[in-house]
Design a protein that fits this description.
Layout: H1 15-27, H2 30-42, H3 46-74, H4 78-88, H5 96-128, H6 137-148, H7 151-171, H8 174-201, H9 205-213, H10 222-236, H11 242-247, H12 256-284, H13 295-306, H14 310-332, H15 334-344, H16 348-369, H17 383-410, H18 413-420, H19 424-449
Helix pairs in contact: 1-8, 1-12, 1-14, 2-10, 2-12, 3-4, 3-9, 3-10, 3-12, 3-17, 3-19, 4-5, 5-7, 5-14, 5-15, 5-16, 5-17, 6-13, 7-14, 7-16, 8-12, 8-14, 9-12, 10-17, 10-19, 12-13, 13-14, 15-16, 17-19
The protein binds 4-fluoro-L-phenylalanine.
């Protein structure tokens, strides 16, 4: 960490920080603040949190490290990178399809991520105009329901969210966003702490804390296990080659493991803080933990409507949420853009515009699934739910499984040992986790959770 002292906000990043900031910007987003709290509530609280933490520690972190390692070794974008590595290790050329799956997954995720980012933007406006003042849980629930029921408003915000995402993607100004991530993350952290502090003043903090950290395993279903695993991939942005792409820009000397652990720690802390900010408000107002995707929009505004300086704090909160979503949304389309530029010779502008238009169009189906099409279900899920489920809970863990297999079964031991630069003991821990624990965990969860045998 000694080098951090020499870096000014305006100056050059040492490359270690460039990776950390890009990866943290991609990792911390709606997944931490919007999704984690509501899926925790849908899956009964504490036991789900334990499962999620176990997945992060035993499955996602080792795979995060493996993914960075593959990227740094290949020094190429995922599709090409996997082809190069497969050749180097005499593995089947078909490994390049792993890169492909990531390209598709990123595109699909962006289509609905932009819709939810739009919700955050819409709530900046509501917070700023003092709309939450004095409203109780029931009133805020109806405010959210009315918002969700209006496809034109959702479409407007979705379009705006996609537009600002594309602006950055097309210009390729990631460097600027990294500089801004360094301010964004601490700001998000501080505002969450402030809200946790507010939670303490409600007199329901202890209840919320024990809801989150006292596991009651009887509340878990087979589906909860799949959701916890999928979320550990979604929240860290792994399993789709993005982290591989970022890893490919990492210099030789930097410790992959240390940087990975830093990103994982930051991401997990933000998610847990979001839970600790939201749940005291849920319990203090007798709300439903299983409210679903509207949870954060129905709960925190109660706090903003009551606390001193609530207009300011509420506006800041939703603005920061929008910005965190933004640094994630621009990253998830990156593998697809890089691929079209490399393979098809498209310009960044052309790739960005077409992909953005495509994801925007597809996003309209998610917009409609919250209103006109909310009765239209496949496998018991609306379009949005099905897309979210397939990408986060199937495609990303499947990508992660293949990454783990490639890194520890296909790649020679010496290669990964040299690339990671760990002590023999730490290397053995990583290897055991990535070679056995993570793949087995993913396979067992898939077989059991998705009912593949029954
Ligand atoms: N990790 C982001 C979040 O938690 O909001 C979501 C995400 C970003 C997923 C980038 C995938 C990705 F490539």
């Amino acid at each position: 960490m000694s080098q951090t002292k020499r870096i000014s906000i305006h100056g050059q990043w040492s490359s270690r920080w460039a990776f950390i900031l890009a990866a943290t910007g991609a990792a911390v987003g709606l997944g931490n603040i919007w999704k984690f709290p509501y899926i925790m509530g849908q899956n009964g609280g504490g036991a789900f949190v334990m499962l999620y933490l176990a997945c992060i520690l035993l499955v996602a972190t080792p795979i995060f490290i493996a993914e960075v390692m593959l990227g740094r070794r290949a020094r190429r974008s995922p599709v090409q990178g996997m082809a190069v590595l497969a050749e180097e290790e005499s593995a089947a050329p078909a490994w390049k399809y792993l890169g492909w799956m990531g390209v598709v997954a990123g595109f699909l995720i962006l289509s609905y991520y932009s819709v939810i980012m739009g919700w955050a933007m819409a709530y900046v406006e509501r917070a700023m105009t003092g709309s939450f003042h004095g409203l109780d849980g029931a009133a805020l629930k109806s405010m959210f329901e009315a918002f969700k029921a209006d496809p034109m408003e959702l479409l407007f915000w979705h379009s705006l969210a996609m537009l600002i995402t594309m602006l950055v993607v097309v210009r390729g100004v990631r460097a600027g966003l990294e500089a801004f991530t360094v301010l964004l993350m601490p700001a998000l952290f501080v505002i969450l702490l402030l809200l946790v502090g507010y939670g303490m003043s409600t007199g329901h903090f202890v209840e919320a804390f024990s809801y989150m950290f006292t596991p009651d395993f009887s509340k878990l279903t087979a589906n909860s296990v799949v959701v916890a695993l999928g979320h550990s991939f979604f929240t860290l942005s792994i399993g789709m080659g993005l982290i591989m792409a970022y890893g490919s820009y990492m210099p030789e000397k930097v410790s992959i493991t240390q940087t990975a652990l830093f990103v994982v720690a930051a991401d997990t802390t933000i998610a847990l803080l979001a839970g600790l900010a939201i749940y005291p408000v849920v319990f203090a107002n007798g709300l439903e933990p299983a409210a679903g995707p509207g949870l954060v929009f129905q709960t925190l505004p109660i706090a903003f409507g009551q606390m001193p300086l609530g207009v300011l704090v509420g506006t800041l909160f939703f603005a920061l949420l929008t910005l965190a979503a933004w640094t994630s949304s621009i990253s998830m389309i990156e593998p697809a853009v890089a691929h079209l530029v490399e393979k098809r010779g498209w310009t960044r502008v052309k790739a960005g515009i077409w992909l953005g238009l495509g994801a925007w169009l597809l996003g309209i189906a998610s917009v409609l699934s919250f209103n006109y099409w909310n009765e239209f279900k496949m496998f018991g899920k609306t379009f949005f739910e099905l897309l979210d489920f397939t990408t986060s809970n199937i495609m990303l863990p499947l990508g992660g499984l293949l990454i783990a297999i490639f890194a520890t079964w296909m790649m020679r031991r010496e290669t990964s040992f040299a690339e990671l630069g760990l002590s023999p003991r730490m290397y053995a821990v990583w290897r055991a986790l990535t070679r056995y624990v993570a793949p087995l965990g993913i396979v067992i969860i898939f077989v059991y959770g998705l009912g593949l045998l029954g």
